[in-house]
Amino acid sequence: MSTPLFWRVLMVVDRGLIALTGKLEVSGDIPPELLGKPLLLASNHIGNLDPMVLIAACRKIGVNPRFMLAGGLLDAPVMGPALKACGHLRVDRRSANVGEAMHRAVEALSKGGDPIAVYPEGKISLDPGLWPERGKTGVARMALGGGIPVVPISQWGAHEAVYWGNLHVSGWRDALPYLTSWLRAVRKRPTFKVHFGKPVELSDLKAETMGDARRAHERIMVAITEGLVPLRLDEPDLPRFHDPTRPTTGVSPWRPA
């Protein structure tokens, strides 16, 4: 699974955008023996900019991630065809085709090449402390079903760059929170911290064993949370940065005591 040229170009642009917006700090790495082989990168989701931060962090350690994206993004005019040309994979979370999408992802991963980046939570965390929400077992099922290693990724800081904003943008007024918050970030230059953890131990679990997908999911989420703790030592409870547009109706079962 080679990296499309168009995606390589966009990743270069992405790295420049992140360098303009803030300071990127990357810790940890991906074990060399996993490079070029089937691999899942599972990250927490803290803001609209964090996929771009994740791409820049991956490029810094020499990997080209592709994403599993909601079908709505791939169906959007202009952006949709561009994302498809980059080789991103489709998943329709609310349809009956989720299993089929997971199968396609495992099939693509089995060819090796670029790792696939996934968000187990499926959405930006709405937990007041921005700790990971419960998430779903899709990533765990892909890992167990294909015998695919999972590297947990923990992010902090990207939430300071672009507001949560609006779920639906129908005019320029709806887009203003994104633009004004980004311009503020360019001026303030927040630090974007990304940590690549050790691969999650899943070798004792099996796809066909009842309850093992849930156990694998728990291990993945705990690993992401454990990696997040040292990134926000000075913000152990609530994030210092307040986004007035982000609802705080979520609950994290993984939040450290």
From TrEMBL:
Could you tell me which CDD domains the record lists for this protein? LPLAT_AGPAT-like
Q: List, for all copies, the residue spans of the domain called Phospholipid/glycerol acyltransferase.
A: 39-158
Record keywords: Secreted included?
A: no
Matches recorded under InterPro entries: Plipid/glycerol_acylTrfase (IPR002123)
List keywords of the entry alphabetically. Acyltransferase, Transferase
Q: Which Pfam families match?
A: Acyltransferase (PF01553)
Question: Per UniProt, what is one GO molecular function of this protein?
Answer: acyltransferase activity
Q: Which PANTHER family match?
A: 1-ACYL-SN-GLYCEROL-3-PHOSPHATE ACYLTRANSFERASE
Name of protein: 1-acyl-sn-glycerol-3-phosphate acyltransferase
Q: Taxonomic classification, please?
A: Bacteria, Bacillati, Actinomycetota, Actinomycetes, Pseudonocardiales
